[in-house]
Amino acid sequence: MNNQKFFLSIAIFLTVFLLWDKWQITHTTDANGNVVRTTQITLDTPSKKDDVPMINTEITKVDLPTPAITEQHGFTTVTTDLLTVEISHKGGTIQNAYLNTFPIEKGGKEKFQLLSNNAGSIFQAQSGLASRDNLLPTHLSNFNSDNTNYQLTTDELVVPMTWQGENGVKVTKNFHFKKDSYVVSIDYQITNNSNQAIPAKSYVRLSRSAIDQSNMMMPTFTGGVVYDKPSHTVQKNDFDDWDDFDTQQSLGGWIAMVQQYFIAAWIPNQNKDQEFSASTSNNLHKLTNANQQISIGAGNSTTLDANRLYLGPKEYGTIEKIATGLNYTLDYGWLDILADPLSWGIHKINDFIGSWGWSIIIITILIKLAFYPLSEKSYRSMAKMRVLAPRLAKLKETLGDDKQKMGQKTMELYKKEKVNPASGCLPIMVQIPVFIAFYWMLLDTVELRQTAFWWMGDLSKEDPYYILPIIMGASMFIQQKLNPPPPDPMQAKIMMSLPFVFTIFFLWFPSGLVLYWVFNNILSIAQQWSINKRLNT
């Protein structure tokens, strides 16, 4: 295999892939300034109902109409050190949630909004009680709140909302907030003053409009995740494949809606049976979990187990402490097997040195050292090809357009000089998946968001002055000069244009990724130059 042809093929493949991916995405921005892709969902039979989970008795399924998106209700605002949430008095739905330590723009006052009740970008966390004959409040029942504003001033805050039924049934829905926590716990205190037992189960739901948040060059996963604890497996579907979700029973587990950097996840009691299901109605995609059913005797009171709601960033090493398996919400694409160790490594390095920019540089050096033997073989092959380049050019001049004769003489020369042009291809092929895995890992590393390094204010965004892409293009040009030129003039011209083409592409790449590529190129240049010098090429 001719190395130059191989590199050209890889370059063309990457170029076509990036162009195709960019063409696929229609760019808009949401209220947070994030790039989004909107998917049009058409339902064959749009549902006019919003289903409450059934209870396992001979009781009619509770079907209640879905309120219009524009319908507004009173709400209570709760502010902690990490969260600001609005709890609707309609069902106790968390209709808006802001992350106080994550501004939309670095240094700005406007906070990142995760949950939203804005028309066209609905994303809400609902919860309620399934029973018979509306004996208990669902996520559409009206609650009362003593206050409309609460502020966390101690280590813990409890926000109660009350509902009074017509048959002497009273329910207090408690929202628990803790300092330095993105978790909101919800439990129910139920008093059954009626003359009959009430079978009931609590349920939770995440509802979201079909909006797919995407990176400019390569889309990141936005959709739903259902985790089955006993089997330690996940169902993971985007909005286009929502119907592929299976209804399942699980001991423990959780449901989540995932996007780049952030998640909302309902985490029930991990020691009790759960039932997970998915549905769509009114262009809303829903994940629902029904908890284990109980019976509340006449004249008795009970407290239902708390469901925990995580509203926050996908911080590596932290979210798995919230619930087993929650680390699966980190999306590293189909190269997770490579990206996860890279993520572990870069986090360990950063824990030690405290700089994400230097962590990228150090892990680049470590990756280069790991591939040093393979790279050495590749660069030696290129160096030998460089030595033979004048002789190949002379052969071409002698044989003219006789391609068959040229190929035969070329192979004879390779055999005589013990040069295998294909020997340099495999090392490059092996390193390409590592680069792609590194790319996806950086795309979903929230710690890089708005993190400054040198002149770059945000390693998750493009270099504001395009210095790194220009250095990257220059390093590619130097690498080409160290390698043997293609014998074909047209190939040579195309190869010489690639540094410019890739510089243009990299103008919009996350600067953290360009930093990795630049230092990888610098190390490659040093290694190639050293080999060329030893072989006197």
List the topology elements:
Elements: H1 3-24, E1 28-29, E2 35-38, E3 49-51, E4 63-65, E5 75-79, E6 83-88, E7 94-103, E8 111-115, E9 123-130, E10 149-151, E11 156-164, E12 169-178, E13 183-192, E14 198-209, E15 211-213, E16 223-228, E17 233-238, E18 248-251, E19 254-258, E20 262-267, E21 273-281, E22 284-290, E23 294-296, E24 301-313, H2 319-322, H3 336-353, H4 356-370, H5 372-399, H6 403-417, H7 425-443, H8 467-482, H9 489-506, H10 511-534
Parallel strand pairs: 5-10
Antiparallel strand pairs: 1-2, 2-15, 3-4, 5-6, 6-7, 7-8, 9-14, 11-12, 12-13, 13-24, 14-22, 14-23, 16-17, 16-19, 18-21, 19-20, 20-24, 21-22
Helix pairs in contact: 1-9, 3-4, 3-7, 4-10, 5-6, 5-7, 5-10, 8-9, 8-10
Describe the structure.
The chain is of the alpha+beta class and 537 residues long. The protein has an 8-stranded antiparallel sheet, with no helix packed on it. Strands 9, 14, 18, 21, 22 and 23 form a 6-stranded antiparallel sheet that branches. Residues 1-10, 15-49 and 57-71 have low confidence and may be disordered. It has helices at residues 3-24, 319-322, 336-353, 356-370, 372-399, 403-417, 425-443, 467-482, 489-506, 511-534, and strands at 28-29, 35-38, 49-51, 63-65, 75-79, 83-88, 94-103, 111-115, 123-130, 149-151, 156-164, 169-178, 183-192, 198-209, 211-213, 223-228, 233-238, 248-251, 254-258, 262-267, 273-281, 284-290, 294-296, 301-313.
